[in-house]
Amino acid sequence: MSPPTTAQLLAEADSASKTDTKRAEALYKQILSSSTSTPSTSLEDVQQQKAQTLRDQETALVNLGQLYRDQKNAQGVAEVISLSRSFMSSTAKAKTAKLIRTLLDYFNTIPNSQQIQMTHSLETRLVGLQLEALQFKPALVMIDSLLTELKRLDDKMVLTEVHLLESRVYRGIGNLPKAKAALTSSRTAANSIYCPPFLQASLDLQSGILHAEDKDYTTAYSYFFEAFENLSSQGEDDGKALGALKYMLLCKVMLNLPEDVTSLLSIKLAVKYAQLREVESIRAVARAHQDRNLADFQKALRDYKDELSSDPTIRSHLAALYDTLLEQNLLRIVEPYSVIELEYVAECVGQGRQAVEAKLSQMILDKVFHGVLDQGRGCLLVFDEPKPDNTYTAAIETLEQVGKVVESLYAKTVKIA
Questions:
Q1: CA triplet 124, 128, 129: central angle to 5 degrees?
Q2: SS3 of 371, please?
Q3: Of the candidates 270, 255, 250, the residue with the CA atom closest to the CA atom of residue 313
Q4: Using only C-alpha atoms, what is the Rg of the chain?
Q5: Higher confidence at residue 69 or residue 354?
Q6: How many CB atoms lie within 10 A of CB 417?
Q7: Is residue 19's pLDDT more than 80?
Q8: What is the pTM of this model?
């Protein structure tokens, strides 16, 4: 005899929910834990059966939440959200967010202040998931709603977390002034309570990231070091500790101190990370930067693409570092010449002519060196740095002094008259 389908279990659970809530609860949980596998051999049948099972699980999830809501069982609603994780990994993000929101709304009918705190905690977690999924707009909408309620309740702990998430969201969309303001609000809330070490480390990490965005790598390094020490001493989250260490190494490279990378990896807390591929990627970048070798830098970016491109912070700063390294290489090539062919310059740096031409134009406009691009001949004309001409300044000063003399003579003639 074949086991009952999810549709059959769902119909049975719906009937039992009016008379035997315990049995209905067990049946809904059985549906949620059921596999989407099917004995059918046809691929089309398999896909249809899988889609039907997911629809039944979604219905069971909502019905189970309603069952707990009617029983005023907040812990049960929270358990439903935990049970939904495996199911939600198979559904679209928009549907997942809507479903979570529906389940969270069930807490509103449970008259207990603890459930309000649980709702805020779950909503904060949802914002974190939206941030990871790069859904910045819905995250900001939920943050605004959360902040209004939290300020009314004066819940400093959750307020600190939400402001920190707000800072990360604004940084993700490139609005640095608002990211800094949100981080300041988060630190203000944290100062009035006992801040757990992990949360303090997260605040330091975000502070370091924002200082790095302002090119203040010295201050950023100190924040990253504090976060790294804090996370390493906790021994709970090696992923975040490793991220802080990578940021520390990146700051050394951006400060033109690539030789410090090796010594930094010899300290006690960093030794266990020294041989990891993530750390080796930054070490390869540091070696290329120390040798000012553009080819090695590009090779490091290719060889460690996953490690260096997955983190937006590292990716953006390495792009700036690559731009600086390209500029230094171009200067080294063109400085000995008064006229040089663009094709030769492009060949020397291993870049396309169009990219080199655009970079040289930018350098000329930024007055990195003085020259003119002759596109007709395909050459770059390099000029010596012009000596400042003080004639204009001297003439202006002379006229000012003459003006004072004329005013003095006029004052004397008035007195004589």
A1: 120
A2: strand
A3: 250
A4: 32
A5: 354
A6: 5
A7: no
A8: 0.60
CA pair distance 281, 163, nearest whole angstrom: 32
Give pLDDT, residue 113: 41
CA distance 260 to 250: 11
Phi and psi at 247, nearest 5°, equal: -65, -40
> Residue 340 contacts by C-beta under 8 Å, 6 or more apart in sequence?
333, 334, 379, 380, 382
Q: Of 271, 269, 163, nearest to 225 (Cα)?
A: 269
Return the DSSP state at 73: -
Query: CB-based contacts of 98: which residues, under 8 Å, 6+ apart?
Result: none
CA angle 374, 379, 381 (to 5 degrees): 75
The residue-averaged pLDDT of 123-127 equals 76
Q: What is the DSSP string of 311-352?
A: SHHHHHHHHHHHHHHHHHHHHHHHTT-SEEEHHHHHHHHT--
What is d(CA 7, CA 217) in angstroms, rounded to the nearest whole number?
59
- Quote the CA–CA distance of 239 and 242 in Å, as a whole number: 5
Residues sharing a CB contact under 8 Å with residue 23, sequence separation 6 or more, in sequence order: 13, 16
CA 357 to chain centroid: 32
Cβ neighbour number for residue 79 with a 10 Å cutoff: 15
Residue 217 CB contacts under 8 Å (≥ 6 apart), including other chains: 211, 251, 254, 255
Concatenate the DSSP letters of all residues of 260-321 into one string.
Answer: HHHHHTTSGGGGGGTTSHHHHHHHHHHHHHHHT-HHHHHHHHHHTHHHHHSSHHHHHHHHHH
Q: How many beta carbons lie within 10 A of that of residue 187, not counting itself?
A: 19
CA angle 401/405/409 to nearest 5° reads 170
User: Do 264 and 249 contact (CB within 8 A), yes or no?
Assistant: yes
- Block residue for tokens 């990891």: 276
d(CA 160, CA 376): 60
CA distance 80 to 28: 10
pLDDT, tens digit (0-9, with 9 covering 90-100), for 300-314 = 888 888 888 878 888
SS3 237: coil
CA distances from 126 to 120, 133, 306 (A): 10, 11, 26
Helices and strands (H and E) in the chain: how many: 21, 3
Q: Beta partners for 373?
A: 380
